[in-house]
Amino acid sequence: MGDSISSQRFTRQDRARFREQVQRGLEALELMLGDGWFEEASQPQLGLEIELNLVDGDRNPAMTNEQVLDAIANPAFQTELGRFNVEINVAPRPLGDDSLVELEKVLSSAFAAADDRAHGAGSDLAMVGMLPTLDETHFTERWLSREPRYKMLGQQILAARGEDIELRLEGVPLTDTAEPEDLDIICDTIVPEAACTSMQLHLQVKPEGFAAHWNAAQAIAGVQVALAANSPFFAGRALWHETRIPMFEQATDTRSQELKNQGVRPRVWFGERWITSIFDLFEENSRYFPALLPESSDQDPLETLRSGTAPDLSELRMHNGTVYRWNRPIYDTQDGGCHLRLENRVLPASPSMADAMADTAFYYGLLHSLAHSERPLWSQMTFDAAHENLHAAARHGIESQLYWPELGWVGPRELVLRRLLPLAAEGLEAYDVSTEARERYLGIIEQRCVTGRNGATWQRANVAAREAAGESRPQALHGMLDDYLQRMHSGEPVHTWRP
């Protein structure tokens, strides 16, 4: 979805041509998988993207991403869907040794420098899962970035629905004595999707190992969300601990109610089965989902392959980028070669860079151990159980109840402390991650579990305390965000924060 779009409208012929190109791309991919075309990394490589929000001095969203990017003048920072968003991209780097510690320093320095330059545009950078001061007045098309692909994407989603977008959710009470707060709004734009700011983790994977890594990532998605939840407020309401999950699902839903009733698959998709090959995912995408941005290239992927060159597969990649799997397969080309990556998309933007690196280390370490386990985790639990874990974790966060083989229903804090932290440590050791990095980042995960404090619980406690002291909800949200940003800049992990 990072590719530019040149067309301002698409014809029926465009759609037919695009479908044909996607199918030819699938055929080419199948041949490439069978013929050993894919490069192997000399050592494990990690890649990272973090989506950020922009706020003004009053902590309201700032529609300034163009000015901020001009001021930052760093190609690592790019536009995102909303004019109140930017994104920082980390080029692939080795995962082993002290790479994570070094990456934390690099990211912290780059973030501080970018934030300093953003001040010149009257803005501050905010790293948070959903910006708590965003409200319904911002849900208009003028808040979309000016890049044509975003406007076209919004038009195509609404055209596919044939009606406006409904956002509905029953929240988790903010305190023991509070009533649940409900969200029930209708909007004519995909701007609410821009409210869902995430951290995406990439790992280059060999074709024969992809299925095991994807299945493992699906199995632990609920645990990841429970530990890292950081999106408890949206449109002024206290909703789920990780409201970003259901809001992203709803804000990009191309189905009318009738199509939902028929069981048509949603565009934001967990999936429906464990897989045996990366090809399963690309094939499902082409089989079940019509094109949103059917712009075709002139390259014939089969002819290109027959000439001995790795094809771009631009149509297959474009289509794949508009099916929003929580764990997404990636085909990419570079320097004449091609490779496969697994993109993990379940995590929100973190409260601090230390927390971001902790979530990164936990994911890569646990994923390695599970993907190489003699008895695969996914052979011991149903796919539906993994899916239900994701939504249970999004709703109740670190205090949710998840299903886990041999343990039954268990809280994520107990599960991580008893079972998963040792596995994550073993996986990081297998990646040759240094003892210092393992102890630093898995120690942060451990303390999150011991204290029960992550971004979501901290935000909820701060707002509850402010409201108990007499502040209105808007005052409490703005005040909480100001406190949050001060602590974010300290660099200290969220388990050390006090409400």
Q: Could you write a compact summary of the structure shown?
A:
About 45% of the residues lie in helices and about 15% in strands.
Low-pLDDT segments, ≥5 res: none
Portion in strands: 15-25%
Largest sheet: 7 strands, antiparallel
Q: What is the residue-mean pLDDT, rounded to a whole number?
A: 95
**What gross morphology would you assign?**
globular
Gyration radius, rounded: 22 Å
Share of helix, binned? 40-55%
- List how many beta strands DSSP finds: 15
Number of helices: 17
Ends apart, CA distance between termini: 38 Å
User: Which structural category fits the helices and strands?
Assistant: alpha+beta
Question: Can you tell me about this structure?
Answer:
- The chain has 499 residues and is of the alpha+beta class.
- The protein is built from 17 helices and 15 strands.
- The protein has helices spanning 12-35, 65-72, 99-118, 148-161, 191-194, 207-228, 244-251, 257-261, 278-288, 301-306, 314-320, 353-371, 383-396, 412-430, 435-451, 455-468, 473-490; strands at residues 45-55, 77-79, 85-94, 124-126, 165-170, 182-187, 198-204, 233-234, 237-238, 268-269, 324-325, 327-334, 337-348, 402-404, 408-410.
- The strands form five sheets. Strands 1, 2, 3, 4, 7, 12 and 13 form a seven-stranded antiparallel sheet that branches. Strands 5-6 form a two-stranded antiparallel sheet. The protein has a two-stranded antiparallel sheet with strand order 8-9.
- Helix 1 packs antiparallel against helix 9, helix 12 (353-371) crosses helix 14 (412-430) and helix 16 crosses helix 17.
